[in-house]
Amino acid sequence: MTDLIALNGRLLASIKADDYAGHDPFDFLNSRLFQATPLNQNRIARLVWLQLGKHLPINLRPLLQVPKMRNPKGIALCLAGLLQDFRRTSRPEFLDEAKRLGPWLISQRSDPEFWQSPCWGYHFDWQARAFHVPAGKPNIITTCYVARALYALGQQTADSRLMELALSSARFMADHLYTERDGQAFYAYIPGETAFVHNASLWGAAWCAFAGHQTGRVDLVDQAMRVTRETVSAQSADGSWVYGTRKHHQFVDSFHTGFNLEALCLIRDVTRSVEFDDCIRRGYDYYVSTFITSTGDINYYKTSTYPLDMHSVAQAVITLLTTGNGPTAREQSTLILSRAIECLYQPARNRFVYQKHRWLTNRINYTRWTQAWAYYALAFYHRYCAEPSNATN
Asked: In angstroms, rounded to a whole number, what is the distance separating the alpha carbons of residues 193 and 244?
């Protein structure tokens, strides 16, 4: 069997060798050649170009002058993984590296003068069907992951200023993302957008509930609970959630379902409420029975195994260990990681492929989407398994 701890170290070394920078499935709009054409001003052209970059199995980014860059969410995942490794080993080099990444994350916050409260976005322009997001414009998912990582770093180093900065990002969510529309309350993905996406809204609720609890802001907790109830009420009878409320959001996939469950568990733990226990149980049962195969593969969609994707694998491990717990969840996580190494790992390059389809494998090295998630999940798994309280759980 593969030595997972040694692999964890090699993967981190590979990420560090590139100084945590790399390409991303969604960074095609960073092409200097594309930006120099009039197509960069056309919504449809941007959308087509972005999707082309996401699905091409050959990496044309060097040719098209798409630079390798650090991604705030990717750095947050790596920082969180370093803290997991430090908790497991007490080796100072892990904490020192995390402390080196913290200031960089702070420096990348979206325009402080305009947004006031701390918030973060991606390093590339992003075109969705419903909206265009310029580089640096904050979004709820990146802000949540960065804030959680910085708070954990502040907690580990007893840096109260760092924890306060992380917690104050909840004000950005409450002030700029909280939305009431058509009788529903939710946190929008980006400021000014009215699409209701369940995992984004729940992550905002989880962080606002946590920040409200830590700072004594009862109004933040109440707002987060209202938002949470909206998504809970949208859960299907079989325990699933579609991605969002718009027509083109009517799909069910594994990692967004995992996000929902992880966020719900955080909300439950913060509020010490049993209100969502049945929802979590039904969602977890659906997740395990629908997305995890007997061989350890993770189905991408409820209707399809392919593509095999390390992002789905990583979230499966985290979902199982945070939502399920118990020996079965641990055994399943071990099987899932072993299967991912068998199918998706490239030993000669010390990294994972992006996606494996039925007849084609996309081996492009994506730092934020693939390697950072893989490292965080492995570090989380090892820390979990090393803790005595989990020895028999």
From this structure: 13
